[in-house]
Amino acid sequence: MTDSLDRRIISALQIDGRAAWHRIAAALGEPERTVVRRGTRLLESGLVRIGALPMRGRSVVVGVRCAPGRARITATALARRSDCVFAHVLTGTLDCLAELRWPRERLAGLVLDELAGLPGVVEIRTLAVLRHARTIREWHAGLLTEAEIAALRGDAGADGASGPVTDPLPTSETPPELSRADRLLLHALADDGRRTYDELARVSGVSEATARRRLGALRREGKVRIRAVIEPAVLGLPVEAVLWVRTPPARVDTVTTALAGSAHVRYASFATGARQLLVLTAFPDEDALHAFVTRSPWLPDVASIDVSLVLTTLKRGGMPAPWLQD
Question: Which of 8, 179, 188, 276 is a good FRET partner for 26, with 20 to 30 A between their CA atoms?
Answer without folding.
Answer: 188
